[in-house]
Amino acid sequence: MSLFAKKPTAKGIEREIGALQLEEKKLVAEIKRTAKTGNEAATKILARQLVRLRQQIANLQGNRAQMRGIATHTQAMYANTAMATGMAGASKAMGAMNKNEMMSDSIDNVLDDDEAEEESVELTNQVLDEIGVDVASQLSSAPKGKIAGKKVQMDESSEMDELVKRLAGLKNP
């Protein structure tokens, strides 16, 4: 190979291997012919050429295997780089979304706590007003302790007696 020759490619190496294998077949045929003629010196020279040719073929096959391995590694590295780039973009997007979500949650928590508490108090007061219950006045007049329990029972029985008397009065005018 000269210094200014093109860099070998996989297809170029394949062509060289094919050409050398054809040359090997020709050389084997020539060795057989010279051996039949009885020319031992020429046969030995041709045999050395055959050994060198086979070494060259083996060397080119090794180079071809290395080139295929390098191509496979290059493709794997490209795939890893593409995946890493995609993951970096995805992690940036997830970080931005997470940051926005955290801010939104914080704002919602601050606003919701005050608003929810105020709304629940207003709603409770509105419902109590609709049914005519004034909680504060009932709590202050409510009886306290064990005695209150007996008094409530007595009040209920006296109210019942009053209702019975009124009913009787309505029946007998």
Automatic annotation (TrEMBL):
<dbReference type="Pfam" id="PF03357">
    <property type="entry name" value="Snf7"/>
</dbReference>
<keyword id="KW-0175">Coiled coil</keyword>
<dbReference type="GO" id="GO:0007034">
    <property type="term" value="P:vacuolar transport"/>
</dbReference>
<dbReference type="InterPro" id="IPR005024">
    <property type="entry name" value="Snf7_fam"/>
</dbReference>
<feature type="coiled-coil region">
    <location>
        <begin position="43"/>
        <end position="70"/>
    </location>
</feature>
<protein>
    <submittedName>
        <fullName>Vacuolar protein sorting-associated protein 3</fullName>
    </submittedName>
</protein>
